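Late entry, evening session. Most of the bench is empty. Finally got around to the prediction I had been postponing all week. Sequence below, unchanged from the version circulated by S.P.
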Amino acid sequence: MNIKKYEAFVMSAEMGGLTKAAQALGLTQSGMSHIISSLEADFGFPLLVRNRSGAKLTEAGEKVLPLIKAIIEKNRVLENLVQKIRSESSDVIRVAAFTSVAVNWLPGIIKEFQQEYPNVEFKLLNGDYHDIEQWLADGSVDAAFVTMPGPAGFQCVPLCRDKLMVVMPEGHPLVKQEAVKAADVALYPFISLLEGSDQDYRRALEKAGVSPRVKFTTKDDYAILAMVEKGLGITIMPELLLRGRSARVVIREILPAASRTIALATSPLDPDSAAARFVSHTAQWV
């Protein structure tokens, strides 16, 4: 199908002659005549009757004209859609994540997403819970991994429940327990994340009526693991963060059982945007 031929035919019919149509399309009169003759050869019947006063539709030309106009219009719709998809597929998606998600989820999520949308670029921000809520609030990111309850004013898609675990150095007295009671955690030096990023363990211990003996605080999850490994204290961490760990530590469940719910938070998104597709893809991936 040659849309240019169709457009030349419609223009000739509407302007009542090849010369005017040629001028409107930026063609020569002979070039226009060649195009119309080629289209008539394709169809196998004449479309226009040419004379000195111009050109008029044949009976066959009148029959095919409405369909050819519809094809031209559909082609315009298609071209606009293709352009829109191309524009969307070259978007940049800004994503914020805390360490456990950034290390264990995001590489796989992005790899599979780019198999379908190879031109989408990502800007990744890694921080603690406080950082992420700030980035969401000031519009620095399109989507952010958070824990429930999510920040007020944002749409949250729950992804999974992530158990909280007690992490101890090898040889620690609590290692003998198959599951560590929350009350026993308070008996030993505790290593904590900075306030604002320690909600997970605080909620678990507060629910059990326990206050930890915080001896060290840091912003870095893996620094905590290193400190635990050296026997400086114990801690409570999400199971996802401990996946593939290399530190020589011992991990036990906590009693009563506790967990965090990981979610993906966004401002309202255009459902056709790359960011909206990323949210949907992430939910399916998890």
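Two things to note before I forget:
DSSP finds twelve helices and twelve strands in the chain.
The CA atoms of residues 23 and 122 lie 48 Å apart.
Will write this up properly tomorrow.
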